[in-house]
Amino acid sequence: xxxxxxxxxxVALCLALGVLGAEVTAPAIPSWYAGLAKPxxxxxxxxxxxxxxALYVLMAIAAWLVWRRGNARVPLTxxxxxxxxxxxxxxxxxxxxxxxxxLIDIVLLAAAIVATALAFRRRSAIxxxxxxxxxxxxxxxxxxxxxxxxxx
Length: 152
Description:
Layout: H1 2-25, H2 48-69, H3 73-95, H4 99-121, H5 125-130, H6 132-151
């Protein structure tokens, strides 16, 4: 029972942070973001919500797998750090319209995801693998953020 509750807690935490990011993001999409010059590889707006939802669930499962192994203070601290950087990106990019600061943040986020995955791997190879799609998406988002910064 406790295992299931902790898993639900991790899922709730990750999805709640996603909702907070969406609250900052949604108002900027039809206005500020629509007016930015974007590269040809910019995905359609509708793709972001389902992708992020899936990634947040994978992240939560990964954290739970590591938590189950015990003695996970360092890996879960790194996990929390990358969650903070992830949330900060939405605020910087969409909330404050600071594409430049968001670019710095997302580079730090990618590094934090790598550090988290490496720390997770010591506890659970599956947990580390569950972070690979997240790292891939954030890597793509970094290129996209850079392109938008450059074009604007």
